[in-house]
Amino acid sequence: MRITYGPWGETLGELVAAARAAEEAGAEALWVPELHRSATVAAAAVAQGTRRARIGTAITLAFTRSPMVTALEALDLDELSGGRFVLGLGSGVRRLNEDWHNVRWGSPVAHLRESVAAVRHIVAHAVDGAPMVLDGAHESLAVRGFRRPFPQARAEIPIYLAGLGPAMTRLAGQIGDGWISHELCSPEWLRERALPALEDGLGAAGREREALDVVVSAVCSLDPDPVVARGRAAGVAGFYASVRSYADFFAFHGLADDQAWTITALRSGAGADDLASAVSGRMVDALTVTGTAERVRDRLAAYEGVADTLKLTPPVYGLPAAETRAAQARLIELIRELT
């Protein structure tokens, strides 16, 4: 499995320093999310501070930008990184789109399919000046007389799709260059739910399994004291358990009651970043990778044979910066050992 990393930084400067350290330790790709920062701005910072590793967004929200803006940002990032950029796109959940960004939700699978087609079309034709015309239910395009007068690092930029539910995961198999799992993804979910959906999508499109990079995310917390390691990861599990849209995911792991308890804590006034105390130990054990370095290595080995790429990330939610910083330092050392 390829070892990749999602760096953290309290400042952009620290984010870049962590990315550089992970690259030097052997990480093949560096992934930046979109929630507290813009994914594309963070990717630009990381691209300028590194030399070899691929730079990916995990993920950029697809519906909050037009395909034209997404394509132009991807072209700029590919130029800035010297052809190292990977565009990771995802729909996000309905509440995030409608309440935070005031964009329509509609039919997310069909919408994302059209968004990807439009981005690829623009990347392919922005430099040659050909008319760019697409008729879509969600993303129409009618561009004439436009030519991007700048050098283009590559004719194509890989597009990875995030998906949790079966329909979105199937779409990744149909049209994606890669699939990015949810931040919480157990080996059992990968084998029993994600891979069958991906294989359905690949089969429907007549594609081979080798055409798709399966990227599994693993939140890792290492410490000589297993109790400390588990405690650092609890906030991550709580943050995602507060999202009702993920009910099927938690029920699959036998954690429906645990998720309900977390949602009750949220409704009682706890912030989404402050739910660690409402999270059961079994939820942390099922959905994150914690413990001593030896135990974490053993847990990661469970993804062998089913994932192509591991995306390791430190715990971030509900922790003081110093705690995340310590967790990150141990994780980068683990990357050095693994590679």
> What integer value in Å does the Rg equal?
20 Å
Number of strands: 12
Regions with little confidence, pLDDT below 50 for 5+ residues: none
Which percent bin holds the helix content?
Answer: 40-55%
Q: What profile does the largest beta sheet have? A: 10 strands, parallel
How are helices and strands ordered from N to C?
EHEHEEHEHHEEEHEHEHHHHEHEH
Rounded mean pLDDT score: 96
Percent of residues in beta strands: 15-25%
- Overall geometry: globular
Question: What is the number of helices?
Answer: 13
Distance between the termini: 10 Å
InterPro entries: F420-G6PD/mer, Luciferase-like_dom, Luciferase-like_sf
Domain Luciferase-like: 10-305
GO molecular function: oxidoreductase activity, acting on paired donors, with incorporation or reduction of molecular oxygen
Pfam families: Bac_luciferase
What does this structure look like?
The protein is of the alpha/beta class and 339 residues long. It has 13 helices and twelve strands. It has helices at 12-25, 39-49, 67-80, 94-100, 108-125, 166-175, 187-204, 226-241, 247-252, 256-267, 281-287, 293-300, 321-338, and strands at residues 2-5, 29-32, 54-57, 60-61, 85-90, 132-134, 141-143, 159-162, 178-180, 213-222, 289-291, 309-313. Strands 1, 2, 3, 4, 5, 8, 9, 10, 11 and 12 form a ten-stranded parallel β-sheet that branches. The chain has a two-stranded antiparallel ribbon with strand order 6-7. Strand 9, helix 7 and strand 10 (213-222) form a beta-alpha-beta unit. Helix 1 (12-25) packs across helix 2 (39-49), helix 3 crosses helix 5 and helix 5 (108-125) packs parallel to helix 6. The radius of gyration is 20 Å and the shape is globular. The model has no long low-confidence stretch (mean pLDDT 96).
